Amino acid sequence: MRLEARITRHVNRLFAHAQDTLDNRELKEEIHSNLAARIDDYISQGMSEEKAFQTAIQHIAGMDEVMSDHRRVQRVPYWTALLQSALIYSLIAWIITIPMRVLMQGSAINNLLMIVSLIVGGMYVLYLLINKTSDSATSVKTTVIRIPALVQWNRRIWWLWAALILVLWGTQAALRFGSNIWFNRPIQVDGPYQFAVIVIAFAIPLLSVIIPLVVHRAYRIVSKYEVSDAL
Questions:
Q1: Where are the domains of the chain?
Q2: pLDDT surpassing 90 at residue 113
Q3: How far apart are CA 71 and CA 66, in angstroms?
């Protein structure tokens, strides 16, 4: 691949999550020209083309913080929407687990989700009351979201959640069926009640999906509340 194409591809990757604004385009051109000039300097000093390219991109790696990896979003609408989503998810989980109250374990989980819903709902109402104002100063307050970090956390939390589910399911399977498997005995389910107990035991860990869903929602709504250059 030609050196110029490699430089262009690298700069495009740096700006992959950046908003397409005039400032960002100008910064992109400036970084491109500076990177090309630095590579030419290194080559003139006797470096190979590959070594010059790698050295130059390492030098500008710290420039992430001055580039538009950061998005400015309207603070109050963004956090209001995120808290609202968290409240909806927790309420749905609470409603789903109401039939589980016939079992002691299901009742404990349902009560816990009710408490979580009340806490999140209280935070949501309190946040609305604190920010209940229509003056222009409040409406343009912003917060900065670093997109690459948020994307990375989004992926990590989904992977961690999947690993947690596998561990919890494995633990449940070992506790309930381990001896049968070890002694090569058939697994028996004595009636609908025991079947329901087993199903609920394996279903309860899935309720923790609320956490990765909220993080995913935090990423998805960034563009909806992003502050444009016109503000």
A1: 3-68, 71-225
A2: yes
A3: 12
